[in-house]
Amino acid sequence: MTFPIAAASDAANELGTLFIVLFAAKLGDELFRRLRQPAIVGEILAGVVVGPSLLGIVEPSRALDLFAELGVVFLLFWVGIETKLSELRAVGRAATLVGVLGVAVPLLGGFALGEALGESFATAVFLAAALVATSVGITSAVLVELGALARPGGRTILGAAVLDDILALLILAVAVGLVAEGDFDATGLVVTVVLSLAFVAFFALGGTRIARRWPQLLEAPRFAESPLLPAVLLCLGLAAFAAQIGLAAIVGAFLAGLIIAETKEKTPIEGEVAPLYAFLAPFFFVSIGVAVELDRLASLETLGLVVLVTLVAVATKFAGAWLGARSLGSKEATIVGVGMVPRGEVGIVVASIGLTERVIDQQLFGVIVAMSVLTTLIVPPLLRALLRGDRHHLEPVGAGG
């Protein structure tokens, strides 16, 4: 059997990239832990250092994208395992308000900013869509690190994130449809939204009910020597299903975790999933840093635009989420408001679609990417400061979290 030299070389390059990314992530992790700062900030900045902006050792690649996707999938799977559906129901009203207002206020703010800057209608819509998005993976990692998932603010963020994702999907679909010059498919959009809502409702309610009725469910398959393999199959299956119907894969992974949390195998699975999370999550955080291209921000005009867009992004998301969560009390509402701020990879994806559709130019693309990274970097230290002194502190579970 022969193996093509070119294929072997490509595989070696990809493996080298993964090694450099993981090694850089751990260096950033180690440094920031010693500085008593959130580890994920060190991992994101490590991505900036090894990425195209500085050293240029690592470029975006299919392998890195795949590992980054697996990283955020297992992050939300872990978060789901640590969460009970009953806990989400307890903050259901607040989570709904946070999800709705946390989308509506940034949407209006982003559109108004686009209009004020003299952008076209379509460009203003895409800018608004980028400001709507929330990267719950970043906040979840900080909540895991600080052991704060169980507090009302943490549960509200998780519940709101699911609704936020559905609403952001709807807005992005409308934005793309408006750009498509008459090809907007209202029927397809309605079908997608209905499927998304049905998917969440079925697995959140039906899946957890089945798990409670048959808590030994993961012991049934004879092909598995431990409950981990059936659990991972459920995680990847629901993540893939969610992606197929237009939702983020992380929503499916989170729902899979909710189901696992109701089984009697929850505790051993926690122990077995933790190393997977610790290994894969750094690829997700480093990939955000790798996406940064500092040379696109070289002019004072562009830097000023970055500051303006970032301020609008932070203020509108915080205001909407805080208003939605104020029934939980001032401190919890502040935690929710800050926790919903990161745009992370979601904002970058929206910017990429806008660039592909030629609705935004290279300058605005760089501005949105910079805003996404900045909102991601500022949240972990702020959350740590807000939660300092509370008795919700656990040892970090893994790298980045």
UniProtKB/TrEMBL annotation:
Keywords: Antiport, Ion transport, Membrane, Sodium, Sodium transport, Transmembrane, Transmembrane helix, Transport
Principal localisation: membrane
Domain Cation/H+ exchanger transmembrane, residue spans: 22-385
Gene Ontology MF term list: antiporter activity
Pfam families: Na_H_Exchanger
Gene3D superfamilies, sorted: 1.20.1530.20
Name of the featured protein: Kef-type K+ transport system, membrane component KefB
